[in-house]
Amino acid sequence: MFKRLLGIALAFGMAATAPPAFAQQSCALRDQLISTLQDNYSEELAFGGLQKSRGSQSVMEVWTSEETGSYTVLVTRPNGISCIVAVGTDFFQAIPKIKVEGIPS
């Protein structure tokens, strides 16, 4: 659960602060962007969710590669256009805390 919360908070924070000019230059049909992420960067979908802003919903996705360490955050609008809002390197997964069962002492 911690992994999901951290990932979502990070992704939504980056999406909210992305400069509009960058997002406009990095938009294309979703299928084209996904193909590029898979073929050129060996990235696969790690997680995603619905994002509601300005009266419409969009889908936010985080694509990652354990092989290359790269990650990409995409936001897809209802018209099928996806925009890259963040990219980076050295992606890592948070290790969840292990709950010890039993009665606390």
What can you see in these coordinates?
It is flat, with a radius of gyration of 16 Å. Strands 1-5-4-3-2 form a five-stranded antiparallel beta sheet. It is α+β, with helices and mostly antiparallel strands. Mean pLDDT is 80; it is low at 15-24. The protein has helices at 2-17, 20-25, 30-41; strands at 27-29, 44-53, 56-64, 71-76, 81-88.
Keywords:
105 residues; 5-stranded antiparallel sheet; alpha+beta; 3 helices; single chain; 34% strand
The outline comes out as flat
What oligomeric state do these chains adopt? single chain
What percent of residues are in strands?
25-35%
How would you sum up the major sheet? 5 strands, antiparallel
Helix content: 25-40%
Mean of all residue-level pLDDT scores: 80
Low-confidence stretches: 15-24
The radius of gyration is 16 Å
Termini gap:
25 Å
> What's the tally of helices?
3
Q: Return the string of H and E elements.
A: HHEHEEEE
Structural class, judged by helices and strands? alpha+beta
**How many β-strand stretches?**
5
Strand order, largest beta sheet? 1-5-4-3-2
